[in-house]
Amino acid sequence: MSDTETMLEEFGRRAAALGVRVDRVPDSAAAASTVQGTATDARVTRLVVSGEVRRRAPGLIQSIEASLDVETATDPAAVRDAPLALTLAHTAYAETGSVLLAEPDLPDRAVGMLSGTLVVVLPTGGLRAGLEDAVAGLRAIASQPGGGYATLMTGPSRTADIERVLTVGVQGPGKVVVVFVDHLL
Amino acid sequence: MTAPSPHDVLRGRQPDVDGIPPDHDGTEHGWPERPFRERYDEALGDERLARNLTAFQQSWRGNRGDAIESIDFGDLRDRLRASKTATIADLETHIATFQAAAERAGARVHHAASAADANRIIRELAELHDVDLIAKSKSMVSEEIELNHDFREHGIDVVETDLGEWIVQVMGQRPSHLVMPAIHLGRQQIGAVLTERLGRDVSREDIAEQVRVVRDEIREVFFTAGMGITGANALVAETGTVMMCTNEGNGRLTSSVPRIHVVIAGIEKLVPSFEDAVMQLRLLGRSATAQTLTSYTTFITGPTPGHEMHIVLVDNGRRQMAALPEFREALNCIRCGACSNVCPPYREVGGHVFGHIYTGAIGLVVTPFLNGLDAVAGPQSLCVSCNACATVCPVGIPLPRQILDVRKMVVRKKGLHPAKRVAFGVLSRPAAFALASRVGAKAQLPLTRGGTFVRTQLPVLNRQTRWRSLPAVARRPLRDRIRVGETQPPLRPVVPNGAAGRTVALFPGCITDRMYPEQGQAVNDVLRHLGVRVVLPVGLNCCGLPANNSGDEPNARRMARQTIRALERTRADHIVSGSASCVAMIAQDYVHLFREDPVWLPRAERLAARVTDFTSFLATVAELPAGSLAVPVPGSIVPDGRVTYHDSCQGLNALGLAAEPRRLLADVMGLRIDELAESTLCCGFGGSFSFEYPDVAERLMNRKLDDAESTGARVIVTDNQGCIMHLRGGADAGRRPLRVVHIAELLAERMRLLGAARSVE
Predict the structure, then answer these.
(1) Partner-chain contact A141 B299, CB within 8 Å
(2) What is the pLDDT of residue B23?
(3) Is the Cβ pair B305, A113 closer than 8 Å?
(4) Could you tell me whether strands B308-314 and B108-112 are parallel, antiparallel, or unpaired per DSSP bridges?
(5) How confident is the model at residue B308 (pLDDT cuts 50, 70, 90)?
């Protein structure tokens, strides 16, 4: 197996243990199919997307728009409790099954915070092995003029505050889907 | 009926649900401030509390074990400890670096010398921006400074947005655990409170429904609050970044949606770089909730565009701690709460008793500096000194030793209990102790009727003795059975071993000497049958452990000096004791006792290097061959060849013994070991602890004896006389079919048999 495949396998194992669905697809059209399938499962036709994913993956958004009502996040109140949302990850880490969300703007951040089901896409090349590989990225994000806001998201929102019984989906997304795209356009 | 808003919910009267009482003064911080003994008695009466906490501790231990399999825990712990220690040593530099970077990114950094300063700074920020509602994410520092109370006094509403925190806030309580704030509550209590507060029926059984209800109550606050307050798990100096770990997602919303974001953090949260932060992450989630990472690990550098960000760095006693070598390492704490998760007394009474605001072992250590010595005077006395906390601490804080140092501070301020004053006064004077023992041996005869237990119930000590028989004082102490100061010649070795020809000075310990001399005799005989010369040195008395564990430093030092004088005179190759507790005291605690004494410190260090426990001696020096003592013994203590092994706390947690005794039992003696369900859990003795807190000691003892009975074995083997005294007493009083023996007794019966066979040949 190649390094990428090994990392994908570990990422998938770690993320699956947390209840995250992980897909690897060849291109944006296939990624769009995954998003559409998730929408069908959730019985929704509306998709809120971050400004970042619209800017960085216009081909993907265009493919999705063929079948879903796509709305770009503009403020948190508009995103509040959106059933389905899509955002772009900076990188992902096999060691923990985490994706790194870099969200300087509040509307983009709201997409990852306030939706019910969150689909995260990123280029397959953005997958790294261990958390130490996150250091350079975190440092770069934090060193931008005006700072930055980044989150290593590891599974869905959860709590075990009552009698240690795990309940998924509190203030953040209750379902997370991660899609690695070999050629993300 | 219109459902009340979160503000209304929090303004409601205090509940009285399922035994959780209302506050004595109606304030949200009133419950934990009731007298310690009152809280203790009430917690003991709450069977559900201990049941919940027992289930929590048992599952955490298993899950945490799984979680650390993917890392080298010891290596990471040592590296994080070194990093944190170096950072604390140069704290002001790192604070300055952090401040400069954070302010470059647009945040404003404030410095609070005290709790009052911190409250004032944040309140003034709220007033400046006309904030009347604040969303708050979990922050133990905010609990420490009683921020919510301050806001309420000034008419500003604060809503906790972490689910567990919200529940305890609504119930007028404080968190009972550093990361599981509502772990002391059951679903029925929570359902009842939600039903009463919200004015609609909420399930008492369906936790998912309860979570949904609370989630919906909190949700609106993020959008209406004018300020969000969060804590920090680390402050990354190089970039001025705040690292925050949460699971629910409330921390991200609290730090993002309200226009003013205030971070409140203790100054000890500084880490130099992202490399250090990642190192901390690898240990924090695993140690706190047995997760590799929490769901959200957020790195915030500067404000959200168009918002303000303020970072309040709180001292409130931390610089004082940093200046004290004894306590400095407690600033390395990453607030994972692991020390609570293995603490036996915490399991029985919970964090509203075992701690003040910060709960568990770390709470006992930091509270004197953050909230005053009086706040921890009662809780610290509940520590059983089992050392379990030190084994799971991800930054290697010497918590057991620091708790004893806090205990010594309490004793210096409030004095020693009169009974202990008398007891240690006698114990520390060899002639008086010898006289008392000999008088006691005779005076007890009407009670013992020549047996090995004192079974008569004394009304004045009913709570202490109704559940256990006390040991009789031996009529012939060990010192009357072995010639003191005279080297006994070796016997012909019964098995090939690496100790033959060596000389050992025997340190029996005072309990062995005066109560269980047959165990001391067994150690002596085993050593001699290995071909070792054995001498019982002149001048031995108690090692000082009982006084040290009670915070009586003067008498502990007095007995330590007696022991050092007696043992340093011997020229033996090794000093061996059959008591794991005495060895831990001599080898580890003496050096701390004399840390500022230029005369006695080097003597204590030299002695520490020579002392070893009996089991380690057999494992590392004698190296008994496998199967060498697997012989049938007529009339054996273990007729069916099955035993269970109780790891004494000092043996396991202080000396690190686990494989060694099991090898002796299974490999060398050929016995079958049926392991205890929770073999690492304390039996509840703890010296005077079992007299001060007999209810907790009884529960822990019965759990251990229940577990032992469940194994099917009828013999409990251990290496510590305190455990033997406790478990034997409980087995006798409870008429349980269990024998409790020292491992030396099993070895001795085999060696005597082989020795006798050799003599016949």
Answers:
(1) yes
(2) 31
(3) no
(4) parallel
(5) very high
Reported as a single tens digit per residue, the pLDDT across B256-266 is: 999 999 999 99
pLDDT at residue B760 tops 80: no
| Number of structural domains chain B divides into | 2
| ipTM of this complex | 0.98
Interface check B52 vs A, CB under 8 A: yes
Count of other CB atoms within 10 angstroms of residue B553: 19
B411: in domain: no
Q: What's the sign of the alpha-carbon dihedral B173, B177, B179, B183?
A: negative
Tell me which residue range forms the domain holding B569.
478-760
In a domain, B137, yes or no: yes
Size of interface A-B (CB pairs under 8 A): 180
| Residue B266 β-bridge partners | B314
> Are A98 and B167 a contacting pair at CB < 8 A?
no
- pLDDT of res. B449: 81
Interface test with B, best of A18, A93, A120, A161 (most B CBs within 10 A): A161
Report whether A124 contacts A182 (CB < 8 A).
yes
Please say whether the beta carbons of A158 and B248 come within 8 A: yes
Q: Name every chain B residue with its beta carbon within 8 A of the beta carbon of A110.
A: 256-257
Domains and CATH numbers, chain A: 3-183 (3.40.50.10420)
B352 domain residue, yes or no: no
- Two structure tokens written together for B164: 């567990």
**Would the pLDDT of B7 be above 60?**
no
Taking the Cβ of residue B178 and every Cβ of chain A, the question of whether any pair is shorter than 8 Å is answered with no
From A137's Cα to the closest Cα of chain B, the distance in A is: 10
Strand order in the sheet with A21-27: A21-27, A175-183, A117-123, A84-88, A46-49, A69-72
- Whether B412 maps to a domain, the answer reads no
Nearest by Cα to B660 from B724, B628, B631, B617: B617
pLDDT tens sequence across B433-446 = 999 999 998 888 88
Interface test mutation site (partner B, options A11, A100, A106, A159, max chain B beta carbons within 10 A): A159
